[in-house]
Inverse folding.
């Protein structure tokens, strides 16, 4: 079942998130722990290494499609928002 996911274009994710620390680095990107300044909740943010140039390209990625179609399971991270922005931590 497709879930509705917030899609946002943003010039700088640090306006909404306080980046805390890099959790892991993999072949496709890095995962960071952050705090959502809107509600003070801890979140995980994945920065992809691939250069994505459009929403269509982003939403057609197998990883995004898979996360959007997952059911609710207690030990699975749920996709809440997809952002496109320029300033990616390294």
């Amino acid at each position: 079942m497709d879930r509705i996911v917030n899609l946002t274009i943003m010039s700088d994710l640090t306006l909404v998130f306080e980046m805390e620390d890099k959790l892991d680095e993999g072949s496709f990107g890095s995962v960071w722990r952050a705090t959502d300044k809107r509600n003070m909740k801890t979140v995980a943010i994945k920065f992809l290494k691939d250069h994505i140039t459009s929403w269509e390209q982003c939403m057609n990625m197998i990883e995004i499609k898979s996360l959007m179609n997952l059911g609710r399971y207690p030990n699975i991270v749920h996709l809440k928002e997809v952002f496109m922005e320029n300033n990616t931590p390294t």
Notes: The radius of gyration is 13 Å. The chain is about 15% helix and 35% strand.
